[in-house]
Amino acid sequence: MSQTQDLLPDTPTPLSTNPRPPPGRPAPGSRILAVVRRLLVRDTASFAHGWAGKVLVAAVLIGIPATMVLLTVIGGRYGRYAEDSWKALLMLVVLAGSYLASRRLLLTVLIGALTVAVVSWVLSPNLADTRDGDPTVLAHLDHQAGRGMLAGYHDVAVAEIDLNAAQPVRLAGIGADDTTPMEIGSMTKAMTGLVIADAVRRGEIRMDAAVSTYLPQLAGSSAGTATMHELVTHTSGYAEFGAATLRRGAWKAPLGHNFLTADSAQLTKEAKSQTVSGRGRYAYSTLGSAIAGQAVAAAAQMSYADLMRTRLFEPLGMTRTAIEDGHALVTGGRSPTGLPVQPWVMSAYAPGAAAVSTAGDLAKLATALLDGTAPGMAALEPTTATDQSNSRIGDFWQISTWQTGQSITWHGGQTGGYASYLGLDRPRHKAVIVLSDVANDASDLGSQLLAHRK
Fold it and tell me: Where are the alpha helices (DSSP H) in 202-252?
């Protein structure tokens, strides 16, 4: 160094406006980035290198879909297992695939959550754009849409009946019309109740007789001692479904597949193998409904489908109504969360949920029920208490007293991809029918339309 340079004063260092943190103390932003980098690094090179980390990864990958399944079965009589469990299955597949490809747990969870959210949004049902039919009914639907009652619907067909009006039957639909076939689910039970009451009038069956009288294959079992009256009022002690059917439903429902495929031999086995409990107490049973329908068909010496066709559908001119057994009569609907669902083609369970109909045909049924010309009118008379203080039951038909003062005779229905409602205000000679190609609760919309028509 030269003498001149040595004599020069030191140049002052300007103060920094962002002083560096003391050594060993990184900036907060750097700490966050470091954490993110560590979480995004391959787990086998970080926390999952040992067995404890591997157990944690497995617990997260299994725990997330397991928790989703648990949430779908909590609450209500059914929970939402059949509606929402497909999301847990999708999450499991995405988590497994993403983790095998990336070995990064945080990234995998983010991909899974985003995938399920996007797919759920894409599949979510939206109300159709096309409108057809009676302007008055469409105005009523617009009013209900403004109240949020059509949220979650896609195609919906409605019939309004008023025998005291100049135009007794009014039909309309959004995305559907009065000829659009839809599965009506458990409304089939109500139709079966009419045919059972008609068979009593014909002297073919007695309501106080044990069901084994007509289905001798049930003799010797506790299920066979249930009376026809107990079966049609859901007081037989039967389970809702047979054990084998429930097992099928556990894995088929999340995929949108039909699980009510038991044949006669399987139905008999399910009925005989169940533990009948709570006899005399109301407990809704599709298994009991199926047994009751098959019993009256056996007493009449014809198949259940032929029984319904010859004794109810044809006499009322319901030419577009049939029992969906052997082959599909619809293309398939959607679950409330939008999952495409196969048609419910049934065999022995048919009396519980296998009818396919239209708003136009159901308007014919409702008209005959209001004017008293339908077969089996005795089925509509309440005989037994239910689990609701304001409701009683006849032959599968529910009779409820509303806060509006109306006494409503009704039945709803759902399959995996469709929903239905038929409500009768018999004292006022009015009725409402709702059909939907989404398996939502059509009873909510139907009851609102009927309540506003006092």
Answer: 228-232, 243-252
- Burial bucket for residue 284 (CB in 10 Å: 0-12, 13-18, 19+): middle
d(CA 340, CA 370): 36
User: Per the domain annotation, does 94 fall within a domain?
Assistant: yes
Nearest 5°: the CA angle 426, 366, 408 is 35
Secondary structure (3-state) at 228: helix
Q: Is there a single domain that holds both residue 119 and residue 161? A: no
Pairing of strands 322-323, 131-133: unpaired
Question: Within this chain, do residues 173 and 254 fall inside the same structural domain, yes or no?
Answer: yes
Which structural domain, as residue segments, surrounds residue 84?
Answer: 41-123
Q: Which residues contact 70 (CB under 8 A, 6 or more apart)?
A: none
What is the full per-residue pLDDT of the chain (454 aa) written as tens digits? 444 444 444 445 444 445 555 555 656 667 777 666 665 666 666 666 677 777 888 898 999 988 888 877 665 544 566 677 888 889 999 999 998 888 888 889 999 999 999 998 998 899 999 999 999 999 999 999 999 999 999 999 999 999 999 999 999 999 999 999 999 999 999 999 999 999 999 999 999 999 999 999 999 999 999 999 999 999 999 999 999 999 998 888 888 899 999 999 999 999 999 888 889 999 999 999 999 999 999 999 999 999 999 999 999 999 999 999 989 999 999 999 899 999 999 999 999 999 999 999 999 999 999 999 999 999 999 999 999 889 999 999 999 998 888 899 999 999 999 999 999 999 999 999 999 999 999 999 999 999 866 5
SS3 of residue 131 by DSSP = strand
The domain total for the chain is: 2
User: What is the tally of helices (H) and strands (E) in the chain?
Assistant: 15, 12
Q: Within a domain: residue 160?
A: yes
Q: What CATH code is carried by the domain that includes residue 231? A: 3.40.710.10
pTM of the model: 0.85
* Closest residue by Cα to residue 280 from 240, 239, 234, 241: 234
Q: Are residues 184 and 63 in the same domain?
A: no
State which H helix or E strand residue 424 sits in. Answer: strand 419-425
Residue 74 lies in a domain: yes
Same-domain pairing of 201 and 321: yes
Q: Find where tokens 């499991």 sit.
A: 92
Do 365 and 447 share a domain, yes or no? yes
Q: Are strands 169-174 and 131-133 parallel, antiparallel or unpaired?
A: antiparallel
